[in-house]
Amino acid sequence: MNWLERIAERMMLKARAEGKLSGLKGEGKPLPHRPAGDAGQAVGFRIMAEAGVLPEEIVLKKQVIAAQQRLAHLPEGPDRQALLAEIARLQMRQSIAEEARRRFMRD
Q1: How many CB atoms lie under 10 A from the CB of residue 78?
Q2: Burial class of 90 by CB neighbour count within 10 A (0 to 12, 13 to 18, 19+)
Q3: CA distance linking residue 7 with residue 5, whole number of Å
Q4: Per-residue pLDDT of the chain (107 residues; tens, 9 = 90+)
Q5: Do residues 25 and 54 both lie within one domain?
Q6: From CA 17, how far away is CA 14, in angstroms rounded?
Q7: pTM of the entire predicted model
Q8: 12 and 57 belong to one structural domain
């Protein structure tokens, strides 16, 4: 353990002894799932999650899933064809949003 870890550990032990670590939001619950990968990306997703905001690609993914569920119960006909076109459009927008995020994180 290096000196910085020892200082951090002492500060946490002091805070626990003073009762500053009890009654915190989420106490006693498992940590939320965090996406693996780039640390910068993880920070961005965490900030959005804490603010209750979903990335555009996730919103689009949910819309695709909902449309696919509607499609499963739709009989053949023009409505089905229109829904298939809408799913294709949503999937294209989702792919564009994912690629834009990847390029932004890479540059």
Answers
A1: 7
A2: buried
A3: 5
A4: 788 888 888 998 998 899 888 888 888 888 777 656 666 677 777 788 788 888 888 899 999 999 999 999 889 999 999 999 999 999 999 999 999 888 887 76
A5: no
A6: 5
A7: 0.56
A8: no
Q: Residue 83 to residues 25, 43, 70, 74, 86: CA-CA distances in angstroms?
A: 43, 36, 8, 9, 5
Cβ(45)–Cβ(35) under 8 Å?
A: yes
Domain co-membership, 23 together with 50: no
Residue ranges making up the domain that contains 65: 38-106
Together in a domain, 26 and 42: no
Check if the beta carbon of residue 40 is closer than 8 Å to that of residue 52: no
Q: Does one domain contain both 60 and 85?
A: yes
Instruction: Tell me the two tokens of residue 56.
Output: 């555009």
Q: How many domains does the chain have?
A: 2
Same domain, 66 and 102: yes
DSSP character at residue 21: T
